[in-house]
Prior knowledge:
Elements: E1 30-33, E2 47-53, H1 67-73, E3 74-77, E4 80-91, E5 98-103, E6 107-110, E7 113-116, H2 117-124, E8 130-140, E9 144-153, H3 162-172, E10 181-184
Parallel strand pairs: 9-10
Antiparallel strand pairs: 1-2, 2-4, 3-4, 4-5, 6-7, 8-9
Amino acid sequence: MTETVAIVCADVSNPYRHDTIGPPIAGRPVLLRNPETGADAPPGEPGELVLAGVPGEDIFLEYLDDPAATGRSLAQRDGVTWFRTGDMVGRADGTDALRFVGRRDDVIKVSGENVSLTEVEATLAQAPGVLECAVLGRPDPVRDMVPVAYVVPRDRERPPTISDLAEWSERNLAAAARPRDWHLIEALPRTSVGKVRRFKL
């Protein structure tokens, strides 16, 4: 990301791993923090990637004309400036290599469990008859939040049924990650550069 100026992680394993972003490189101190409390993430749980640096040197100086956003992203601790990247990562197989889980806003808590909407999307995209999908979090009075899926069928003439999708998700997703509602749509709303406009859903 442009805010970090130089690279932070690199996979230098042999052979390369497709499922990690690698360990932090030398000279790039990072922490994994609980995005809500700011405390260190417990071992084995994903946390927000927080990076130490010097503003204007190896991390960005500030957001242009947006001091509030700068204040939310940069914090001082023990005389060190830390940048909250917004990326949720976990340790891969107990190693120093980091695994990207999703953006902070893309991780919801379902009945006390963290669910990465990005990972749910990646899994659902493999379901039979699915061309692509987007998954959003919806407030729920019992579970805090629940996933809701918007699915674009591969074949509009013969789309998958909601029951087929629900059964497939039961076999391939943990209970907390299974969408509670399904919507079949013709296309995902996108920006001119292809990014999904989630607020339209």
